[in-house]
Backbone:
């Protein structure tokens, strides 16, 4: 939104408007960027067992993610007039080069989001060093599981071993 507000051609919706104004640049930016975010999150975090198949084997998911990405990109860059009316988006004409370039520059944000999400997922979230750091910070003194507490008591009181056998 900040990038939109910095454009010289941008006119915000006046505060005194009482009826909802759906077709606006604010809605275009929010809709397209949030669509990309949903697609990226679904793709990056669907990575395997026990609930989902890996991306390389889940062809239907990959097909739907790619087709949605192409569709949203088309809606953002240069939708036809009928589709823009149907989706209640602003349609630009080829002579509005500054507005067209704004739409192209808007693709930077989903691209950066994709790179950051993939980097975090690959290099941080599943790493053992992170799990060790979290365990060190928590410093759990005794286990929460009742079975593990009984095992711990069994090891501290050897006479319990003779009773249970």
Residues:
């Amino acid at each position: 939104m900040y990038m939109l507000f910095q454009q010289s051609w941008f006119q915000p919706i006046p505060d005194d408007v009482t009826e909802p104004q759906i077709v606006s640049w604010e809605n275009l930016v929010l809709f397209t960027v949030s669509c990309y975010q949903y697609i990226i999150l679904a793709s990056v975090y669907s990575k395997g067992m026990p609930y989902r198949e890996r991306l390389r084997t889940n062809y239907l998911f990959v097909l739907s993610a790619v087709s949605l990405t192409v569709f949203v990109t088309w809606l953002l860059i240069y939708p036809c007039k009928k589709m823009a009316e149907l989706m209640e988006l602003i349609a630009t004409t080829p002579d509005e080069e500054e507005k067209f370039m704004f739409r192209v520059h808007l693709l930077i944000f989903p691209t950066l989001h994709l790179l950051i999400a993939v980097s975090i997922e690959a290099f941080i979230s599943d790493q053992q060093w992170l799990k060790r750091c979290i365990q060190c910070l928590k410093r759990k003194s005794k286990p929460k599981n009742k079975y593990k507490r009984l095992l711990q008591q069994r090891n501290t009181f050897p006479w319990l071993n003779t009773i249970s056998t």
